[in-house]
Amino acid sequence: MRYLQFILITYFLFIVGSERLTAQWEYTNGPSSVGYVNCLTVKDSNILVGTDEGIYLSTNNGSNWAKSNNGLTRKDVNVIAISGNNIFAGTGSGIFLSTNNGAKWTKINCSLNKSVINTIVINDTNIFVVSNYGMFLSTNNCLNWKEINIGLKNTIIRTIAINGANIFAGSFNGIYHSTNNGASWNSVFNDLPKNTIVNVLLANGDSLFVGTFNGVFLSTNNGGNWTKLYGLRETTEVECIAIWRSNIVIGSDTRAGIYRLNYYGTNWIRDRWDVPGMAVRALAANNKYLFAGAKNEVWRNPK
């Protein structure tokens, strides 16, 4: 009888624990029928989502959504970046600007008009852009652009991360480091595995995380050395990284969902019950929720 009671109690605790873990993630009621969520940008309770069907806005942490496409002549939105009241959207043909929280968009008339914009990163008055023609810098709110590709052996840059005066660029053949605002670049590939393809970079304090086609690596000396964070499958393709609740959170494009690792831990935990079988391409957080963008859906996890 005691053995049976033990089995029943263990089963009950397992079910309760599983339900509690499952309940952490909440569907945000949209946006729907938009294909994959390409990017998520959060400012306070406002969430801007970029998709192949345009931009969607929520002003209440995802409880409701509305289209935000007025003036947006290209709907394939790859990246959204915010600087003060300025919101920049990088599309398949140039950059659009909104100064009224996405109510209206205006295309920025510049040399990047016909470029595919993949990444926008803003650091003070410096705006860094990655396009299909390389990397560019504007210091006057996108009025003029300067090409900053000196030292980049491969101009197919996929991601940028900034930590103070240190700028990092990830590409199809490694990672590059600049300390002079992109005027020149040096490789910091060092002891990363050969032919590593970099999908995403995230700088957090002295830590630089890199998400690749085969897991996550960490450097604490500006790319001088790299350590692999083991525990993920070798085939885990990391598309996005966020820091949340003292955890490193990654989204995978191989339908593996979301994993998290305590900042000082060694074991990855898969939130497999939460976003089942979904490719997660975007993560972002505010002071209340962690948001995850999947296909036709945005989920949130309350803090």
What would you note in describing this structure?
The protein has 303 residues and is mainly β. The chain has one domain (28-302): 7 Propeller (Methylamine Dehydrogenase, Chain H), CATH 2.130.10. It is 7% helix and 46% strand. It is built from one helix and 28 strands. The strands form seven sheets. The chain has a four-stranded antiparallel beta sheet, with no helix packed on it. Strands 2-3-4-5 form a four-stranded antiparallel beta sheet, with no helix packed on it. A hairpin with a 7-residue loop joins strand 8 and strand 9. The protein is globular, with a radius of gyration of 20 Å. 40% of the residues are buried. The model is unreliable at 1-23 (pLDDT under 50).
Features:
mainly beta; globular; 303 residues; 1 helix; four-stranded antiparallel β-sheet; Methylamine Dehydrogenase, Chain H; 46% strand
Structural domain tally: 1
Q: Taking Cα atoms only, what radius of gyration do you get, to the nearest Å?
A: 20 Å
Structural class: mainly beta
Question: What is the CATH C level class, in words?
Answer: Mainly Beta
CATH topology: Methylamine Dehydrogenase, Chain H
Residue stretches low in confidence (pLDDT < 50, at least 5 long) are 1-23
CATH architecture: 7 Propeller
Largest sheet: 4 strands, antiparallel
Q: CATH superfamily assignment?
A: YVTN repeat-like/Quinoprotein amine dehydrogenase
Question: What order do the helices and strands come in, and which of them pair?
Answer:
Elements (H helix, E strand, L loop, with lengths): L1 H22 L2 E2 L9 E7 L2 E6 L2 E5 L7 E2 L9 E7 L2 E6 L2 E5 L7 E2 L9 E7 L2 E6 L2 E5 L7 E2 L9 E7 L2 E6 L2 E5 L7 E2 L10 E7 L2 E6 L2 E5 L7 E2 L9 E7 L2 E6 L5 E5 L6 E2 L11 E4 L3 E6 L2 E6 L1
Antiparallel strand pairs: 1-28, 2-3, 3-4, 4-5, 6-7, 7-8, 8-9, 10-11, 11-12, 12-13, 14-15, 15-16, 16-17, 18-19, 19-20, 20-21, 22-23, 23-24, 24-25, 26-27, 27-28
